[in-house]
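Entry for coenzyme A complex. Fields follow.
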Amino acid sequence: MIEYKINDDIKPGELDNFFQGWKSPPSIEIKEKLIDGSDLIITARENSMLVGFLTAISDGAMHAFISLVEVLETHQSKGIGSHLIERAVDYFKGYYDIVLMTDKDKGAFYKKFGFDEIYGMHIRDFKYRLNPSPLVGEGKGEGE
Ligand SMILES: CC(C)(COP(=O)(O)OP(=O)(O)OC[C@H]1O[C@@H](n2cnc3c(N)ncnc32)[C@H](O)[C@@H]1OP(=O)(O)O)[C@@H](O)C(=O)NCCC(=O)NCCS
């Protein structure tokens, strides 16, 4: 059975099995900082093993940004990601904006929870990019 918990403690080392496929996964120091710096952490555990988690940052009143949603590959497509998102949306109920960034092919997944596409701007540090092009590291972005 999967147990979900809001603001559970995560040890940085528990994130070692996540970020699969990332060219440059976060270091242990970054993992520690992102855990400490998140305003909301929701965990999914199976027999106490972390199998999924969601992090978000927020001003505590109007705006929330869901920064990471990750489910172990072995546990995907079992409803865990959906459950984490539903819990986060419920947690921030009444906020003016709940925002997340995702790949275009996952848009349909998030629409199920009420998310709409928006126009947005961002700066991404390409060292964390999935499937980087040969331009990575030269300060060039997509299409350049
Ligand atoms: C996206 C993710 C969080 C979904 O978690 P999950 O527990 O597998 O999700 P659920 O079981 O609740 O729902 C599964 C649905 O997610 C959607 N989905 C998952 N991965 C997808 C992908 N790569 N492309 C498109 N849709 C995807 C599908 O609609 C899928 O439906 P299906 O099971 O009928 O195929 C999980 O696949 C994951 O951790 N992926 C790697 C990290 C990532 O991409 N995080 C999201 C960044 S915003």
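NOTE: Strands lie at 2-6, 40-46, 49-58, 63-71, 97-100.
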